[in-house]
Design brief:
Bound molecules: adenosine-5'-triphosphate
Number of strands: 10
GO molecular function: ATP binding
Shape: elongated
InterPro entries: AAA+_ATPase, ABC1_TM_dom, ABC1_TM_sf, ABC_transporter-like_ATP-bd, ABC_transporter-like_CS, P-loop_NTPase, Type_1_exporter
Largest sheet: 6 strands, mixed
CATH architecture of the largest domain: Up-down Bundle
Structural class: alpha/beta
Number of domains: 3
Number of helices: 21
Membrane topology: Multi-pass membrane protein
Distance between the termini: 73 Å
Organism: Dactylosporangium vinaceum
Helix content: 55-70%
CATH topology of the largest domain: ABC transporter transmembrane region fold
CATH superfamily of the largest domain: ABC transporter type 1, transmembrane domain
Radius of gyration: 34 Å
Mean pLDDT: 85
Protein name: ATP-binding cassette domain-containing protein
C-alpha cells in the first residue's frame, strides 16, 4: 500500500510540474463527476416521497435535480479527459526521456547486457507504453471514487449506522485484489524472459537483412515453430496466473455480495414496519447498488495504480542501480598527448553474471603512436579488451594505465571525448547522411566540411558520392523518401563517423570492415595507417584494430595474439612469423587460402 501511495504522490507531483492549472481543473471535474451519482440518490428518494405524497412541485424539483446530477455524471468525465490526457502524455514523454537518459547516460554497458536487467527493462518498457495517459485517468478516478465513497458512507450512516458495514464489506475484495496483482506481477516477470526470446525470433523473421539467410537455410518454418513454442510458454505462465488471480478476486466480490443483500433486507424491513419512508428505501437501494459499483471500480483502479506504482518503483530501482555504477570521482586530467603509452597491468575481467574470467592476467604495453592489431579465435576476448580500453567496463582485477595514470582516474566524459571508435555492430541512425556521419563528433554534427573530411580520412567518400542528394540524402525506412543502404554502405558511413574526431588518443576499430571485401579492407587500412601516423605525430594517439584478416593485420606495428582470454604472443609481423608460433601458423593458413 505504501508503494501505491508513493506512486500516486509521485504521479501527482509530476503532473503538477507539467501544468498545475490543468491538474486542478481535471481534479475538480473528476471529483464533481464522481460525486454526482451518489448525490442523485437522495434526489431520487425525495422524488419518490413527493410522488407518494402527491406533491407535484416538490416532485418536479427533485426530478430536475436528479436529471442535472445524472447529466453531470455522464458528461463531466469527457471534459476532464481533455484536461488530463495531455498531462498523461507529457508524463509519459518525461519518463521515456528519463529512461533513455538512464540507459545511455550510465558509464558502462553492464545494465544493457546483463540478462536480469534486460528482463526488468522489457517489463518497464511494456508497462510505460501501456500505462501512459491511463495512469492519470486511474489516479483521478481513484480520487473521485474516494469522494463518492465518502458521500455514500455519510448518506448511509444518517439512515442506519449498521449500513456503514456495507463499504467495509469492500475491504476483502481490496486485499484479495492486491494479492492477485502481486501474483500477476511475478508471472509477468517470469514470462518476460520467454517473450523477450520470442520477440527476438519475431524481429529476426521480419528483418529484411536476415531474410536472405533465412531463405537460404530454409529456417523460416523452424523460426515460426520456435516462436510459437515460446509464445505458448509465455502465455501459459500468464494464463495460470490470471486464473488464480481471477479466483482471488471472485472470492472478494462474493463477500461483498453477502453484505449488499443484508443491507437491502435491513432497510426494506424498516420501511415495511413504517420506521422509514419508501423514499429512504429507494435511496438505500440506489446507494447500495452504487457501492457495489464503487467497490468494483476501486478494486480495478487500485490494481491499475499498483501497476503504475510498480513501474515507478522500477524506475527508482533503475536509478539506484545506475547510481551504483557511477565511476569513482575523477582526480586526474586526460593529457593532451600520450608520451609513453597505455599499459595493461595484470588485467582480468569477468562478466559479472557468467562466473568465469573472459580476460585473465593480461599484461600489455601499447606504445604511444602505435598501430596495434588484436587477433585471436572467436571468443578469445578481443572485443572485451577493447571494451575495457573504452571504459564500458572496469577490470575486475588489475589496471589500465595511460602514461602511468590509472584511466579510472580520468573524468569519463573527457576520456570518451578523446576516444573514437567504429564497431562491427555499428549504429544505423536514420537521419540525413551528414548527420549519420556527423554524430561521431556532436559539436560538428552539421558541418559539411568536417563530415566530408572525416569520410576522406576513412576512405569511404564513395558512398556519399553515389547518393542522389549527397550529404542531404535521408537514410532509412523511417524517413519520408529515405534511401535504403546495404550493410556495407552503412558500415562505410560508420567508419566515417569513427573518423570525425581529429585528434583522438585512442582510435578503436573493432572489425568495422567485416561487411567489406578483403581488398577494400586492405585499402581502407592503408589509409588508416597514414591517418594514424598523422594523429600519432600530434597526440601520440594509439590505434587498436581488431580483425580476422591477416593481410590487414600485418600492417600493424604491434600484433597481440589472444587465446582463451590470455596473451599468447606479442610482436611485429616479422617477429611473430620468425617465431613460428600460433600467429605464424594462422597467417600461413590464411595466406594459403589466397594463393
Ligand atoms: N555481454 C556478455 N555477457 C557475457 N559473456 C560475454 C559477453 N560478451 C562476451 N562474452 C563472452 O566473453 C568471451 C569473449 O568474448 P569477446 O566478444 O570478447 O570475444 P572476441 O574475441 O571479440 O570474439 P569474436 O571474434 O567472435 O568477435 C566469449 O566467451 C563470450 O561468450
Amino acid at each position: 500500500m505504501t508503494e501505491t501511495l508513493r506512486g500516486c504522490w509521485e504521479l501527482l507531483r509530476m503532473s503538477w510540474r507539467q501544468h498545475p492549472a490543468k491538474l486542478i481543473l481535471a481534479l475538480l471535474l473528476k471529483t464533481a463527476e464522481a460525486a454526482a451519482l451518489p448525490l442523485a440518490a437522495p434526489a431520487l428518494g425525495a422524488l419518490t416521497d413527493a410522488a407518494v405524497a402527491r406533491e407535484p412541485a416538490a416532485a418536479a424539483r427533485a426530478a430536475a435535480t436528479a436529471a442535472v446530477l445524472a447529466m453531470a455524471a455522464l458528461t463531466l468525465g469527457h471534459f476532464a479527459h481533455v484536461a488530463y490526457f495531455e498531462l498523461g502524455e507529457q508524463n509519459l514523454l518525461a519518463k521515456d526521456r528519463e529512461l533513455i537518459e538512464l540507459v545511455t547516460g550510465s558509464a558502462g554497458l553492464a545494465h544493457q547486457e546483463r540478462p536480469e536487467y534486460a528482463d526488468r527493462m522489457q517489463v518497464l518498457r511494456q508497462e510505460l507504453r501501456r500505462t501512459g495517459s491511463s495512469s492519470m485517468e486511474a489516479l483521478l478516478s481513484a480520487l473521485g471514487t474516494a469522494v463518492a465513497v465518502t458521500i455514500t458512507a455519510v448518506l448511509l450512516a444518517r439512515l442506519n449506522p449498521w449500513l456503514l458495514l456495507l463499504p467495509l464489506a469492500a475491504v476483502p475484495p481490496l486485499l484479495l485484489g492486491r494479492a492477485a496483482e502481486a501474483r500477476l506481477a511475478r508471472a509477468r516477470e517470469s514470462a518476460a524472459q520467454v517473450s523477450r526470446q520470442a520477440q527476438h525470433l519475431f524481429d529476426l523473421a521480419i528483418d529484411p537483412e536476415a531474410g536472405k539467410e533465412l531463405r537460404v537455410g530454409d529456417l523460416s518454418a523452424e523460426i515460426r515453430t520456435r516462436h510459437a513454442g515460446l509464445w505458448r510458454d509465455g502465455t501459459s505462465i500468464l494464463f495460470s496466473a490470471e486464473v488464480r488471480a481471477a479466483a482471488l478476486r471472485v472470492a472478494g466480490q462474493a463477500v461483498f455480495a453477502v453484505g449488499f443483500g443484508a443491507a437491502t433486507l435491513l432497510v426494506v424491513r424498516e420501511a415495511a414496519a413504517g420506521r422509514r419512508t419508501i423514499g429512504d428505501a429507494v435511496l438505500v437501494i440506489a446507494l447500495a447498488a452504487q457501492v457495489n459499483q464503487q467497490v468494483a471500480v476501486a478494486v480495478s483502479l487500485l490494481r491499475e495504480l499498483q501497476r503504475v506504482a510498480r513501474t515507478l518503483a522500477d524506475f527508482r530501482w533503475m536509478r539506484a542501480v545506475y547510481a551504483g555504477q557511477a565511476p569513482p570521482p575523477p582526480d586526474a586530467a586526460v593529457p593532451d598527448r600520450i608520451r609513453h603509452g597505455i599499459r595493461l597491468r595484470d588485467v582480468s575481467f569477468e562478466y559479472p553474471w557468467t562466473g568465469r574470467p573472459t580476460l585473465d592476467g593480461v599484461d600489455l604495453f601499447l606504445p604511444a603512436g602505435a598501430t596495434v592489431a588484436v587477433v585471436g579465435e572467436n571468443g578469445a576476448g578481443k572485443t572485451t579488451l577493447v571494451k575495457l580500453l573504452c571504459r564500458f567496463y572496469e577490470p575486475t582485477r588489475g589496471r589500465v594505465e595511460l602514461d602511468g595514470v590509472d584511466v579510472v582516474r580520468f573524468p569519463l566524459e573527457d576520456w570518451r571525448a578523446r576516444t573514437s571508435a567504429a564497431f562491427q555492430d555499428f549504429l544505423r541512425p536514420e537521419f540525413t547522411a551528414r548527420t549519420v556521419v556527423g554524430v561521431g563528433d556532436l559539436p560538428l554534427a552539421d558541418s559539411t566540411d568536417a563530415v566530408t573530411a572525416a569520410l576522406h580520412r576513412a576512405g569511404t567518400q564513395d558512398v556519399v558520392d553515389n547518393l542522389e542528394h549527397g550529404l542531404d540524402t535521408a537514410l532509412g525506412a523511417s524517413l519520408p523518401d529515405g534511401r535504403q543502404l546495404s550493410g556495407g554502405q552503412w558500415q562505410k558511413l560508420a567508419l566515417g563517423r569513427g573518423m570525425m574526431r581529429t585528434a583522438p588518443l585512442l582510435l578503436v576499430l573493432d572489425e568495422p570492415t567485416a561487411a567489406l571485401d578483403a581488398e577494400a579492407e586492405f585499402e581502407l587500412f592503408q589509409g588508416y595507417a597514414a591517418n594514424a601516423a598523422r594523429v600519432a605525430e600530434q597526440t601520440g594517439g594509439i590505434t587498436v584494430l581488431v580483425s580476422h584478416r591477416f593481410s590487414t593485420v600485418r600492417m600493424a606495428d604491434l600484433i597481440i595474439v589472444l587465446a582463451d582470454g590470455r596473451v599468447a604472443e606479442v610482436g611485429s609481423h616479422d617477429d611473430l612469423i620468425a617465431r613460428g608460433g600460433p600467429y605464424a601458423e594462422l597467417y600461413q593458413l590464411q595466406a594459403a587460402g589466397y594463393r
